[in-house]
């Protein structure tokens, strides 16, 4: 049976509409917790540490087994997707990145995100190259593209977060795959090519080793260290996240995701031990020493719309 999405807040029986967040709750509350939108019974799952990586898995809320959300509840997968679809129409005169089809499936147009990124880079160059001459039209175009890109990232992160919140439940994953199709250029790409959690970094690494991954991807990461500053021309800040240890044919590889940015404010926006869903462009460092077991996967984060806190 499908488990539904993890939740970060709920209500309590006999407490009216007061909303309780994870920090205010504990296992002792378990007999009186209900969904904040529909009153389905939910339970508190305590935080724990993964033995293998020492990574902390934060507390979260989930449905009791045999419980279901009401069909109109915002915590159902269908309604969470519908909510994002409605919001993705927010910027005027642009194509929405999430588009509902007649058969009720939603198309997530990943190519629009990529096109907007390229367009922003182009107009950014144009604005910067015209130092003293005021070019209002180039500047306006830049501002508009930046706004559209943020809106696209917001939707992309939202949809990736829904994937993260259903974790490994096969029924739920299939339901999401049937509800949201990811389009890239002229074809549909599998969800597995877009979303990677800490048990599948090695899959992404292998893909990147073979060739460049053209489209932005979603990564679930937990921040391990404070940002590192290097005097580099691109992305001087680097934030190390918890790794995946991968073993095949007695050969061990440790794959470390790193958040890269050149914006001070973004480098300070991540908290240690907190888990995030990120969407961005990725690349690998050149391997200088083949015997070194550590490998980095870099993801570029340049705006707040590119990440969100993950529950659990
Ligand atoms: Zn509910």
N-to-C SSE string, H for helix and E for strand: EEEEEEEHEEHHHEEHEHEEEEEHEEEE
Please give the radius of gyration in angstroms.
Answer: 21 Å
**Domain unit count:** 3
Oligomer: single chain
Bound molecules: zinc ion
| Class from secondary-structure proportions | alpha+beta
Major sheet: 6 strands, mixed
Overview of this protein structure:
- By secondary structure, the protein is α+β, with helices and mostly antiparallel strands.
- It has three domains: 9-73, no CATH class; 76-189, no CATH class; 196-309, OB fold (Dihydrolipoamide Acetyltransferase, E2P) (Beta Barrel), CATH 2.40.50.
- The protein has helices at residues 77-87, 110-129, 136-165, 170-179, 191-194, 201-210, 264-267, and strands spanning 9-12, 20-21, 33-34, 42-45, 48-49, 56-57, 60-63, 98-100, 106-109, 180-184, 187-189, 195-196, 217-222, 228-229, 237-240, 244-248, 251-261, 275-280, 282-284, 294-300, 307-309.
- Strands 14, 15, 16, 17, 19 and 20 form a six-stranded mixed sheet that branches.
- Strand 10 and strand 11 form a beta hairpin.
- Zinc ion (ZN) is lined by residues 35, 37-38, 40, 69-70, 73, 75.
Write a compact overview of the structure shown:
Helix content is 29%, strand content 27%. It contains seven helices and 21 strands. The site of zinc ion has 8 residues, from loops.
Keywords:
about 300 residues, alpha+beta, OB fold (Dihydrolipoamide Acetyltransferase, E2P), 4-stranded mixed sheet, 7 helices, binds zinc ion
């Amino acid at each position: 049976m499908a488990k539904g999405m993890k939740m970060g807040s709920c209500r309590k029986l006999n407490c009216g509409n007061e909303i309780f967040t994870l920090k205010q709750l504990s296992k002792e509350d378990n007999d009186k917790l209900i969904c904040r939108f529909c009153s389905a019974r939910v339970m508190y799952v305590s935080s724990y540490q993964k033995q293998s990586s020492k990574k902390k898995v934060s507390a979260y809320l989930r449905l009791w087994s045999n419980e279901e959300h009401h069909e109109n509840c915002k915590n159902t997968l269908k309604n969470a997707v519908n909510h994002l679809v409605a919001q993705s129409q927010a910027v005027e005169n642009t194509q929405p990145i999430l588009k509902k089809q007649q058969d009720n499936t939603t198309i997530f147009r990943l190519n629009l995100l990529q096109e907007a990124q390229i367009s922003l880079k182009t107009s950014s160059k144009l604005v910067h190259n015209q130092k003293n001459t005021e070019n209002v039209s180039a500047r306006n175009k830049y501002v508009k593209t930046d706004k559209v890109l943020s809106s696209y990232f917001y939707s992309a992160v939202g949809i990736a977060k829904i994937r993260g919140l259903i974790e490994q439940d096969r029924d739920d994953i299939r339901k999401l795959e049937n509800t949201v199709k990811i389009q890239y250029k002229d074809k549909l790409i599998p969800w597995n090519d877009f979303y990677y959690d800490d048990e599948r970094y090695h899959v992404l690494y292998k893909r990147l080793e073979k060739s460049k991954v053209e489209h932005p991807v979603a990564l679930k990461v937990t921040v391990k260290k404070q940002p590192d500053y290097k005097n580099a021309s691109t992305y001087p800040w680097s934030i190390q996240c918890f790794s995946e240890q991968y073993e095949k044919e007695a050969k061990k590889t440790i794959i470390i995701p790193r958040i890269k940015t050149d914006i001070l404010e973004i480098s300070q926006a991540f908290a240690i031990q907190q888990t995030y869903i990120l969407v961005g462009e990725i690349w690998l460092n050149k391997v200088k020493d083949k015997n070194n077991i550590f490998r980095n996967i870099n993801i570029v984060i340049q705006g707040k719309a590119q990440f969100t806190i993950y529950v659990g």
